[in-house]
Specification:
This protein has 625 residues and is mostly helical. The chain has helices at residues 5-8, 17-27, 32-38, 55-76, 79-84, 103-110, 118-129, 139-165, 181-189, 195-205, 218-229, 231-237, 299-309, 314-335, 344-347, 350-356, 362-366, 398-417, 447-463, 466-481, 485-490, 527-539, 578-596, 601-609, 612-624, and strands at 44-47, 50-53, 496-498, 509-514, 520-525. The strands form two sheets. It has a three-stranded antiparallel beta sheet with strand order 3-4-5. A two-stranded antiparallel ribbon has the order 1-2. Helix 2 (17-27) runs antiparallel to helix 3 (32-38), helix 2 runs antiparallel to helix 8 (139-165) and helix 14 packs across helix 18. The longest helix is centred in the N-terminal third of the chain and has 27 residues, at 139-165.
C-alpha cells in the first residue's frame, strides 16, 4: 500500500497546525513518540486496556511531515531558510560553556590575603574570564553561538511557513481535501461528502460508525476519529465529539442511572435522559383507595422496579426495556399523560400505533396521531447516547407486534397488582388474532435443507482448521440438543458429564443447561455430539480432556480467528458472545447457500435467511414426530 495513509502514518494529506507543532517540538529535541501521541496520534497497538504508540508508524509520520514541509518551504521561503529546516536537531546540540569559577572561588585563588579592593577584584575577574576577549574565545564557544543562532532562525522560518501554509479544516470542506484519497473514496461512496457529514456519522453511530462505510476498518476509523478529536481541529470546526467515538462499547447495565439534570430533557430520548414534566400528570384524577406499593406517578421508577424484578437473561432484559421505553414515550407524546393516568380508551390505540408505524402514508398517519412518523423512526445501530437515537428502526412485523404487546400487558398487569394504576387498563391492550403466528407457519429448516448443511459440515472436516471444527461443533450441538444461542454461550466444561468420566469414550452424556429466567435442565448428549466435542477440544489444545479447567467455556474464541490452525500448545479460553455465535451460524448457512445456488436458487435464498431459530423449530418438529 505504498503512498497510502498506512505508509506515512496519518490519514490526512494536508499540513495542519498540529503537524507544525509536532515538527517544532522535534526541532527542540523532544521525544517524537510523545509528540505524536499529543499532536498527531499515529497507528496504535492495543495491549489489554493500555494503548502505546507504534514506533514504526511514528517514524513514518516524521518522514512524511519533513517531506511535506520541505516541499512547502522550497515554494514559499528563501532557499537559505528552506535549507535550514533540513538540518537535524542533533547537529545543533553544542551548548555555550558555563563559567565554572565563581567570584568567591576567584578571590580565594588570586587574593587570599585581601590585597585587592572589591572593584579591582571584579575588574581582574572579568579580564581573566571574559568570553568577549578575542584571544581566549574557544572553538566550542563559537560553535555553540552559531548553533543557537541557527536554531532561532529555524523556529522563525517554521513560524513563517506555518502562517503561509497551515490551514484549518471547516465543516463544509470535502473529505477528499483532507483525507487519504482511498479513504475519501470509500467515505464518498457511503454518502459522506463533507467534514460535517463525517462528524454527524460519528455522533450518530459512536465508536462503530465505520461499519456503515464499506471497506473502512477499525484502524483507519480510529485514525480519523483521533484527528477530529484533536483540540486544534475541534476549535477550528466548533464541535466537540462524544467520548464514546473513541471508546469501544462495553456491556452496560440494563437501565443505567439517570444523567445529571443538565443532560436530561423531555423529548424522544432514552429512559436515562428522559424527564417527565408535571403537566403530564393530571392532578384532577384521584388515586385508588388502597395505597400503592410503588412511588405514585413516577413512571421511570416503576419501569426500573419492574425491570429489576425480571429474572431473565440480558437479551430478554433489553427486550423488556425496549418495549417499556416505547410504550412510555408513546404515552407521553401521543396521549399527553403518564402511564398511571392512562384510560382503556388510550391503551386501545397502542396496537394500532404499532401496526401503522412505518407503512402508512403520512397524510393518513396525521389523521390518527400527533407526531409524524419520522420522529419515531431512526437508523439501525445508532448509539443510545446519540441525539439521533429513535425508539423504532422501521415497521414491525406481526410477530414483533405480538411480542411487544405481550411485554406491555405483562408490565401493566404488574403495575395493576401493586395499585399503581388508577383503573384496569390491561385488557384494553388487545393482542389481535392476525398477529398470532400459527405453528405450521413458523419459519423452519426443512429436513432436506438440514441434510445439505450436514453434508457441508462433513466437507468441513477435510480442511481441519480450528474455525471449521468450531462451526461443526456449534451446529451439531445445537441440533442434537436443541439449544438456544444464549444457552450455547453460557456452557462451561463443568456442565458436561460423560458416562465413564470426561476423558472416557462414553456413548452418551448430559448437559446442565441454564435456560430462560435462570431455570436449569438436563439435556442428553448423543454419540455424534460427544465425538464433535472431543474433536473440537483437541483442536483447542486439550490433548488430555481430564486437564480441562472446570470453568473453561465449551465454545471459545480462536487464537487466530482467520481460520488457520493454532500453534501447538496454544489455548484460548475466552468465551464467545451470543452475537459472535450467531454470526458463525449465519456464515455457515450462507456458505451452504452459495454451494447450492446454481442447482436450486429458491432453496439457496431460504438458506441465506435461515437462523438458529429455524434450526430449533426443526428440532421441535423432529421431537414431536
Amino acid at each position: 500500500m505504498r503512498g497510502s495513509w498506512v505508509s506515512h502514518g496519518t490519514v490526512t494529506i494536508r499540513l495542519g497546525r498540529p503537524h507544525f507543532a509536532f515538527f517544532r517540538g522535534y526541532l527542540e529535541g523532544l521525544d517524537i513518540r510523545a509528540l505524536a501521541a499529543r499532536y498527531v496520534p499515529p497507528e496504535t497497538l492495543q495491549d489489554g486496556s493500555e494503548t502505546c504508540v507504534n514506533q514504526r508508524s511514528t517514524h513514518a509520520l516524521m518522514r512524511w511531515i519533513r517531506k511535506q514541509l520541505f516541499v512547502a518551504a522550497r515554494r514559499n521561503l528563501p532557499a537559505a531558510d528552506a535549507r535550514l529546516l533540513g538540518i537535524a536537531p542533533e547537529a545543533l546540540l553544542a551548548e555555550i560553556p558555563v563559567r565554572q569559577m565563581t567570584l568567591e572561588q576567584f578571590r580565594e585563588e588570586r587574593d587570599p590575603y585581601g590585597m585587592y579592593g572589591e572593584a579591582e577584584l571584579i575588574a581582574l575577574f572579568e579580564e581573566t574570564h571574559s568570553e568577549a576577549h578575542a584571544g581566549k574565545r574557544s572553538e566550542r564557544h563559537r560553535r555553540a553561538i552559531r548553533n543557537q543562532r541557527l536554531r532561532t532562525r529555524q523556529q522563525r522560518a517554521l513560524q513563517l511557513l506555518e502562517n503561509l501554509v497551515a490551514t484549518d479544516p471547516a465543516l463544509d470542506d470535502r473529505v477528499d481535501g483532507w483525507l487519504d484519497p482511498t479513504l475519501a473514496k470509500h467515505l464518498e461512496a457511503a454518502g459522506i461528502l463533507t467534514i460535517a457529514d463525517l462528524v454527524a456519522s460519528m455522533d450518530r453511530y459512536g465508536y462503530r460508525w465505520y461499519t456503515k462505510v464499506p471497506r473502512i476498518g477499525v484502524k483507519a476509523a480510529l485514525h480519523i476519529s483521533r484527528w477530529l478529536q484533536q483540540e486544534s481541529v475541534c476549535m477550528a470546526l466548533g464541535i466537540k465529539l462524544r467520548p464514546d467515538a473513541l471508546v469501544p462499547p462495553k456491556a452496560a447495565a440494563i437501565l443505567e442511572p439517570p444523567l445529571p439534570p443538565a443532560s436530561r430533557r423531555f423529548g424522544i430520548v432514552v429512559l436515562e435522559r428522559l424527564v417527565i414534566p408535571p403537566s403530564c400528570i393530571p392532578a384532577s384524577l384521584t388515586a385508588p383507595e388502597e395505597p400503592s406499593l410503588l412511588p405514585r406517578d413516577d413512571d421511570l421508577a416503576a419501569i426500573t422496579s419492574w425491570l429489576g424484578s425480571r429474572h431473565a437473561t440480558s437479551h430478554t432484559q433489553r427486550a423488556y426495556r425496549r418495549e417499556c421505553e416505547r410504550f412510555l414515550l408513546w404515552t407521553l407524546f401521543e396521549c399527553g399523560k403518564s402511564i398511571s393516568a392512562l384510560t382503556p380508551t388510550d391503551c386501545a390505540r397502542y396496537p394500532c400505533f404499532l401496526s401503522m408505524l412505518g407503512n402508512t402514508p403520512e397524510q393518513t398517519w396525521a389523521t390518527h396521531f400527533r407526531l409524524p412518523q419520522e420522529k419515531w423512526l431512526g437508523s439501525v445501530g445508532v448509539s443510545r447516547k446519540s441525539d439521533y437515537w429513535k425508539p423504532f428502526h422501521g415497521s414491525l412485523s406481526l410477530p414483533s407486534q405480538r411480542q411487544a404487546l405481550i411485554i406491555v400487558r405483562s408490565f401493566l398487569q404488574w403495575l395493576l397488582e401493586r395499585n399503581y394504576l388508577r383503573e384496569d387498563i390491561v385488557s384494553a391492550v388487545v393482542i389481535r388474532a392476525r398477529g398470532v403466528v400459527p405453528g405450521d407457519a413458523k419459519p423452519t429448516l426443512k429436513p432436506a435443507e438440514w441434510k445439505l448443511v450436514e453434508d457441508h459440515l462433513i466437507q468441513f472436516g477435510k480442511t481441519g482448521s480450528n474455525a471449521t471444527f468450531r462451526a461443526r461443533f456449534i451446529l451439531v450441538l445445537a441440533h442434537d440438543c436443541g439449544l438456544r444461542l444464549s444457552e450455547l454461550s453460557a456452557l462451561r466444561w463443568c456442565d458436561l458429564t460423560v458416562a465413564g468420566g470426561e476423558g472416557a469414550s462414553g456413548t452418551h452424556g448430559f448437559l446442565r443447561v441454564t435456560g430462560r429466567a435462570g431455570n436449569r435442565r438436563e439435556v442428553v448428549v448423543g454419540v455424534r455430539a460427544l465425538t464433535e466435542t472431543r474433536a473440537y477440544l483437541r483442536c483447542r489444545g486439550y490433548s488430555d480432556l481430564s486437564m480441562i479447567p472446570a470453568d473453561a467455556p465449551l465454545i471459545a474464541s480462536l487464537q487466530n480467528d482467520s481460520g488457520q490452525k493454532a500453534s501447538p500448545g496454544t489455548r484460548s479460553d475466552a468465551p464467545l458472545t451470543v452475537h459472535r455465535i450467531y454470526r458463525i451460524v449465519k456464515r455457515t448457512f450462507h456458505d451452504v447457500a452459495q454451494a447450492v445456488e446454481t442447482v436450486d436458487a429458491v432453496q439457496a435464498e431460504r438458506l441465506r435467511s435461515a437462523s438458529m431459530q429455524w434450526l430449533r423449530h426443526l428440532v421441535e418438529q423432529e421431537a414431536s414426530a
